[in-house]
Request: fold
Amino acid sequence: MSDHISGPRALANAIADITDVFAFPSPDRANHLVLVMNTLPFAKVSNAFSEGLIYRFRLRPLTANAPGDRAPFSAGPEHGAEEFVFDCVFSPPTSADAHPFEQEGTCTTPSGESVAFRVNDEEGGSGHGMRVFAGARWDPFILDAPAALKTVATGQLAFAELGAIYMDGKNVLGLVVEIDTALLGGATLVGVIAETLTRGTFNVRIERVGRPEVKNLMLGPKQFDPVNQDLEIRDLYNMEDAFHIQHGYEGAYRARLNANLAFWDGLDGRTDWPINGNGHPLTELVLADYLVLDLTKPYQEKGSFLEIELAARQGRAHETCGGRAINDDVMDKFFTTLINAGNGPVISDGVDRSSRPASRSFPYLSPPNPNPPEKPEHH
Reply:
C-alpha cells in the first residue's frame, strides 16, 4: 500500500502505478547512490515494462530553510532550479507467446549518455557511471495494510502484536539505477522523486512518488476533511510537480492534510502536534514530498528514513544518510511520528521485516515469486 493503487488513475492504468520508491547510498560501492522504482502491483513474472512510458528519477540539490520553518528544506528557486534527471524507456517486448519474453531498455544520464540493458538480466547494463537493472521482483513493502485501513475506518488503533504483510509474496516490476555520485555535480544534500509519464512528443505525468503512504494514508481518507469531504484528491496530487506545487489546489491539499494528520495524532488520546492558525505542524513537511539524502554519509539500513527532516525541524544536526533503504521498516517510523511525535512507545503494525529481505549487492531487490497470490477481484 506504500503507493500501491493510489487513486483512480493508478487503478485504471496499473502498468504506470508506482508502488514504492527507495534511495540510499550503495552498501558495497563507495560514492554510489541507488535509486529504486517499483511499479505494477500484483505483477507476474510474465509482465513486461510499458513501451509507452518514461520511468523517470528526478534529483535536486536542497538548501536548508531558516530554523523553525515548517518545511525544513527547499528544492531551489521556483523557476529553473538545477535538476538531475535519469530517464528509462523500454522497447516493445517479444511476442507474448515467447517464454521467457525478451525486452530491451535504455537509461539516459542527465548529460544525455545512454546505457542499454536487457529486462530480467541479473547483471543489468552499465556504463557512463551508471548501472541499471529491470525485471520482476518480490514486492518488499512491509505493512499490515488491512490493520492500517481498519484504524482509519474505526478511529481505533487496530494493530496486533503479530501482524501480517498484506498478500505476502506478491511481485512488482522493479527498476534499479545505481549512479556514481559524480554525476550529480558535487551536490551533497538532494531530494529524490520517481515518476511515470506518457512517452512521446507530449509527456503527461501519471504518477509521482517521494515518501511512502502520503497519498493512501495521509491524503486518501476523506471523512475527516471539513472542506473537501467529497473530493478524491490523489489524482490531482499525482499531476503536481513534487518540487513545485501549483497554487490552484494547494489549499485543498493543506485542508486534507491538516485534518488527516490531526486524526493520526489523536489515536493515542493525546495531542503531540498542536494545530494553530498555520495548520498542522507537519503539513508543509509532507507537501515537500521527496526523499532527502545526505550523499556524504554511509549506507544505514535502519532509522535513516525521515531522520534528516525531523532533525532539521528540531534544530539539530542530522546523523544519517536519510533516504529510504529497502529493508527499513519505515511504517513504524511513520506511525510513531504521526501518532506520538516520538514522545512515547514505538507504534508498530506488528510486521518488522520482509519475508524476502533485500540483499546488499546489485540489484538489491529479491527475485520474484514464481507463483504469486492472485490479485483480489475488488481491486
